[in-house]
């Protein structure tokens, strides 16, 4: 049975969907390629840069690049895969020009937003979904492989929840329901973990090179892999090292060396060391009698 607003039909339809991508970036081309493997049909994409065209040719061969409005005209399922700041304006523009059809599934992949940002789509009769893949993308075919088992943050109206989760499963992912109000915190958590991890690793690589290590990536790989695994399994209980032990003398030496040889890294070292000390103290790893001297070093070590 099909409701007059098309919701039940879209949420339960077994037929393969014609898929369009607005913004043929790293995310959009990878998701469309996954949907093709699941039996859906990518029919159109939009993208103006040379990089977008190369990605489309590599991951979506034979799919024409057209204007965004034409993508919507050809597709049953539209992926809006543009930067967060561009998404509200894009949605408003597509809805204002009448590009959205009643019953059309419109999916964005922003971690920051839920479905409220798609309200113009809803007013035009479209069906809103927010499906955010929790993965970094390279723009190469390896992205399709990485989506296998990848978590997706799913936000949707209750009547479309099953449809959103089904699409994620078809792409090989694992759906995780995120309430509309929780999307900003969810996204902040992911950015803090993934983006800042890259910065920390890059800084460590630079310092090891400065210390004469010829293959710092090979040195760090096993250590960081074990640390990540331990942290995911045990949380704060996985803390080790001089801060967690309260070894103020070692930390003072670190600070002195960073000020001399890597001043650009000192501020982040101090910030993370203070936070680590606070968590270790709260968790009982760092003893109170050791914490005072350590925190004095960290306070004295602030960049001058």
From TrEMBL:
Positions of the Putative oxidoreductase/dehydrogenase Rossmann-like domain: 7-133
Domain DUF2520, first and last residues per copy: 150-275
Classification via Pfam families: DUF2520, Rossmann-like
Descriptive protein name: DUF2520 domain-containing protein
Stretches assigned to coiled coil: none
Source species, domain of life: Bacteria
Annotated InterPro entries: 6-PGluconate_DH-like_C_sf, DUF2520, NAD(P)-bd_dom_sf, OxRdtase/DH_put_Rossmann_dom, TM1727-like_C_sf
């Amino acid at each position: 049975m099909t409701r007059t607003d098309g919701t039940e039909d879209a949420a339960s339809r077994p037929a393969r969907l014609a898929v369009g991508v607005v913004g043929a970036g790293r995310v959009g081309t990878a998701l469309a390629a996954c949907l093709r493997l699941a039996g859906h049909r990518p029919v159109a994409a939009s993208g103006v840069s040379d990089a977008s065209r190369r990605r489309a040719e590599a991951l979506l061969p034979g799919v024409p690049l057209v204007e965004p409005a034409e993508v919507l005209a050809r597709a049953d399922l539209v992926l809006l895969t543009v930067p967060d700041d561009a998404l509200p304006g894009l949605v408003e523009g597509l809805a204002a020009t009448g590009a959205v059809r009643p019953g059309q599934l419109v999916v964005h992949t922003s971690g920051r937003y839920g479905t409220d940002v798609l309200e113009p789509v809803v007013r035009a009769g479209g069906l809103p979904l927010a499906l955010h893949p929790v993965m970094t993308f390279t723009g190469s075919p390896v992205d399709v492989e990485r989506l296998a088992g990848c978590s997706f943050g799913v936000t949707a109206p209750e009547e479309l929840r099953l449809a959103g989760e089904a699409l994620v499963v078809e792409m090989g992912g694992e759906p995780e329901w995120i309430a509309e109000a929780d999307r900003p915190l969810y996204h902040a958590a992911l950015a803090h973990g993934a983006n800042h991890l890259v910065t920390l690793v890059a800084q460590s690589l630079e310092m090891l090179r400065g210390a004469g290590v010829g293959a710092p990536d090979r040195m760090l790989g096993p250590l960081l892999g074990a640390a990540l695994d331990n942290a995911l399994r045990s949380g704060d209980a996985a803390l080790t090292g001089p801060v967690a032990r309260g070894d103020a003398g070692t930390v003072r030496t670190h600070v002195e060396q960073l000020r001399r040889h890597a001043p650009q890294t000192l501020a982040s070292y101090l910030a993370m060391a203070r936070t680590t000390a606070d968590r270790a103290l709260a968790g009982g790893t760092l003893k109170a009698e050791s914490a005072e001297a350590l925190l004095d070093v960290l306070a004295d070590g602030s960049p001058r």
